[in-house]
């Protein structure tokens, strides 16, 4: 059995997919880009600002699912420029100050809406 998770606070889907799915005690958050629903656009300000917005979107979706950032067990990070790795890491660390989740970071050619970063996450309930 699965439950679709939706919130207006996190970034809205840009395609035919759910923001997150709850199944078997896990929350699977779809890849989030730095979309700010208040301004209805991708945030400006480079990789640091975009990383912050992405992780705020992930946090909002997890909250809507009854979970939280401290329950994240895995993240996949997609960067359009691996030279942004260090700056992304600085912001990322503020969201996971203790016992950070397992993580994979890869470079990709392009992301939706020309975002610099996308992050997907898996958390426990």
Q: Please, could you describe this protein's structure?
A:
- By secondary structure, the chain is an alpha+beta fold.
- It has one domain (2-124): RutC-like (60s Ribosomal Protein L30, Chain: A).
- It has helices at 46-64, 85-95; strands at 2-5, 20-23, 26-32, 35-36, 41-42, 72-79, 102-107, 117-124.
- The protein has a six-stranded mixed sheet with strand order 1-2-3-8-6-7, with helices on one face.
- A hairpin with a 4-residue loop joins strand 4 (35-36) and strand 5 (41-42).
Distinctive features:
six-stranded mixed β-sheet; globular; 60s Ribosomal Protein L30, Chain: A; alpha+beta; 2 helices; 125 residues; 24% helix; 8 strands
Brief overview, please?
With 125 residues, the protein is α+β, with helices and mostly antiparallel strands. The chain has two helices and eight strands; from the N terminus they run βββββαβαββ.
Looking at the overall shape, the CATH architecture is 2-Layer Sandwich
Low-confidence stretches: none
Please state the overall shape, judged from the principal axes of the Cα atoms.
globular
**Estimated share of beta-strand residues:** 25-35%
State the domain count: 1
Mean pLDDT: 95
State the secondary-structure class.
alpha+beta
Number of strands: 8
The number of helical segments is 2
- CA-to-CA gap between the ends? 15 Å
CATH class: Alpha Beta
Question: CATH H-level name... which superfamily?
Answer: RutC-like
Largest sheet: 6 strands, mixed
Fill in the CATH topology: 60s Ribosomal Protein L30, Chain: A
């Amino acid at each position: 059995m699965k439950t679709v998770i939706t919130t207006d606070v996190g970034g809205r889907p840009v395609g035919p997919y759910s923001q997150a799915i709850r199944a078997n005690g896990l929350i699977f958050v779809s890849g989030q880009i730095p979309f700010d629903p208040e301004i209805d656009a991708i945030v400006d300000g480079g990789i640091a600002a975009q990383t912050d917005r992405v992780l705020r979107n992930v946090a909002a979706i997890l909250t809507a699912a009854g979970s939280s950032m401290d329950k994240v067990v895995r993240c996949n990070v997609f960067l359009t420029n691996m030279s942004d790795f260090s700056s992304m890491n600085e912001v990322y660390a503020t969201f996971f100050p203790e016992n950070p989740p397992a993580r994979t970071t890869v470079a990709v050619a392009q992301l939706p809406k020309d975002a610099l970063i996308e992050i997907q996450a898996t958390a426990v309930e």
